[in-house]
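Annual report, structural modelling task.

Input specification for the nicotinamide-adenine-dinucleotide complex:
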Amino acid sequence: VSKVMYNRVALIGLGLIAGSMSLAMRRAGVAGEITGYARSQATRDTAREINLVDRVCDTAVEAVKDADLVVLAVPVGAMGPVMAEIEATLKPGAIVTDVGSVKKSVLDAVLPHIPEGVQFIGTHPMAGTEHSGPRAGFAELFENRWCLIVPSETADEAEIEKLESFWSALGANTERMTPEHHDTVCAVVSHVPHLIAYTMVGVADDLRRVTDQEVIKFSAAGFRDFTRIAASDPTMWRDVFLTNKDAALEILGRFTEELFALQRAIRTGDGDHLHDYFTRTRAIRRGII
Ligand code: NAD
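The model returned the following structure:
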């Protein structure tokens, strides 16, 4: 029995997420042919060399021609411009999806370019590493990870369910959300933590002269664990904060309040406050596998 769900899948962007999708689709046998396009010639050359997709195309238009599923896997700020380029080529009945880390601004940017007869269903696989580019992908990336599904209001229920089954076939668990709720949740669990990791490394770098390079030499487990994600792609993360401004600022405000309370407890020697706080957070953290 054929497991093929979409005869032709086009991946726009050939980085960590698209590459992992291609490898996972092949393993699950859910795609007929997988085409791919990335803006840089170097990325396309690498993708060809490592056989990342079945056919690497030199234009986005060529990649999406006759595609049943088009996946936008570029930085969030590039999704609108990519759609403007391909909208006239999308075939009737095609499904367009994205894998962006922000959802409301992506829907706003993409929906005006969705032609009659084509449907848009947003997704966000909550899986990643600090690595990027065409060599970073691996088939197991989505296994037992969440993939949040954020359909446009006009999408057909049957097509949403089909896309959910597709992500299940790639190993993910799916859950539906509104774009606003998605953006708040992700600001808490992903976006602001990345920002804090960036500042941690920035502070260590600022103090280089005081600590005489010792931060790098002695970087202990805490610093390493905590700052791993600070090596993530700068373009991707710039776009996340530019497009999820409201939720990121809201969560950052709350984070700052907590930090000020801890700062006061340290200054005043309020050991009870510190102990209570750390006890509560340890219990919560231990509940996360
Ligand atoms: P990546 O940097 O590994 O890959 C991005 C790809 O897009 C590259 O192939 C690049 O050449 C291409 N590209 C950039 N601008 C383009 C344009 N204008 N036109 C065509 N191609 C272009 O990034 P990634 O980690 O695969 O992220 C892709 C998307 O997935 C982003 O929207 C990101 O927010 C989202 N995402 C990332 C993670 C993560 O942890 N890395 C997790 C979930 C979702």
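DSSP finds 13 helices and eight strands in the chain.
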